[in-house]
């Protein structure tokens, strides 16, 4: 392992939520639960399982309660539910999620498209929901979406994102995730943004969420963990994207990320071949070839 590279990093499986929400094929709840079960069997211990968005806006997530009622409950597995408003928080709490993830979008235009509110209103909502989460004993995390660029407003400054993180930190997040929602970022941006965010919110663990839209997602992931990010998101098969961002293609693939990190001597606790098999399987369920490559090429040495 290289000097300066952490010996271990946590990987959150986001395929059941961010992966499936942008797919045209609507899968039954039982298939979503099997995807989660397969991920857990492959070593995943944090799963972004569902979103409590309005069913008409995101029909792929309409069965969130049904999915959460059927997932295996284990002390070593934490389930994350995405919430966009107070109603979503109520549903998440009733469904028994372990963590709520609230989204604050870095630009007003994208925030209006994604959540029907300005960034300032998103910050106020985060503070309200974080306080509720603390009272209810649910772990509150927050994602700053479009941290590396906005499809409507263009470049997003690192200073602006860091200021958002500083204000978010006032409400006591368990974690701040910096999301490259449209896959626009490059490694130098990652290093700069992580350094600025750490300075703005020094007590909060940082997580990164990368899409491979412009083939920079894996390079960004390397830069993030070398810069000290505690957690990386990935989606088995590399499926996914954001339905409210034009051309926001899939997340980095969990199996390909595992191969990369393991080859660099970083421990993930994940089973790459099992993830690759699951990536191929979910592609079959969706009726498409997934972007992930490990399932096609195999591990090396084989």
From TrEMBL:
Keywords on record: Lyase, Metal-binding
Superkingdom of origin: Bacteria
Matching PROSITE patterns: PYR_CT
Pfam family, any one: HMGL-like
Domain Pyruvate carboxyltransferase as annotated: residue spans: 9-276
CDD domains in the record: DRE_TIM_HMGL
Matches recorded under PANTHER family: HYDROXYMETHYLGLUTARYL-COA LYASE (PTHR42738)
Organism: Saccharopolyspora gloriosae
UniProt name for this protein: Hydroxymethylglutaryl-CoA lyase
UniProt GO molecular function: hydroxymethylglutaryl-CoA lyase activity; metal ion binding
Classification via InterPro entries: Aldolase_TIM, HMGL, PYR_CT
UniProt keyword annotation of Magnesium present: no
Annotated family: Belongs to the HMG-CoA lyase family.
């Amino acid at each position: 392992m290289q000097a300066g590279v952490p010996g271990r990093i946590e990987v959150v499986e986001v395929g059941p939520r961010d992966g499936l929400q942008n797919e045209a094929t609507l899968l039954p709840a039982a298939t979503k639960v099997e995807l989660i079960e397969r991920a857990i069997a492959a070593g995943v211990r944090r799963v972004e399982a569902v979103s409590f968005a309005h069913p008409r806006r995101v029909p792929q997530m309409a069965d969130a309660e049904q999915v959460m009622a059927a997932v295996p409950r284990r002390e070593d597995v934490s389930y994350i539910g995405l919430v966009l408003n107070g109603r979503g928080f109520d549903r998440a709490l009733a469904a028994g999620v372990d963590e709520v993830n609230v989204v604050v979008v870095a630009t007003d235009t994208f925030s209006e498209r994604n959540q029907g509110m300005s960034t300032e209103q998103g910050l106020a909502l985060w503070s309200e929901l974080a306080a509720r989460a603390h009272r209810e004993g649910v772990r509150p995390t927050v994602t700053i979406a479009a941290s590396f660029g906005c499809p409507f407003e263009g470049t997003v400054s690192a200073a602006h994102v860091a200021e958002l993180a500083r204000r978010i930190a006032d409400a006591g997040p368990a974690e701040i995730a910096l999301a490259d929602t449209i896959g626009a970022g490059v490694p130098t941006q990652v290093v700069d943004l992580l350094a600025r965010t750490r300075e703005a919110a020094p007590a909060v663990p940082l997580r990164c969420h990368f899409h491979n839209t412009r083939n920079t997602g894996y390079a960004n992931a390397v830069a993030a963990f070398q810069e000290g990010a505690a957690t990386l998101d990935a989606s088995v098969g590399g499926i996914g994207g954001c339905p409210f961002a034009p051309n926001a293609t899939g997340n980095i693939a969990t199996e390909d990320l595992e191969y990369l990190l393991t080859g660099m001597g970083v421990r993930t606790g994940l089973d790459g071949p099992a993830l690759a098999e699951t990536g191929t399987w979910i592609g079959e369920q969706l009726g498409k070839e997934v972007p992930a490559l490990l399932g096609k090429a195999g591990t090396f040495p084989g």
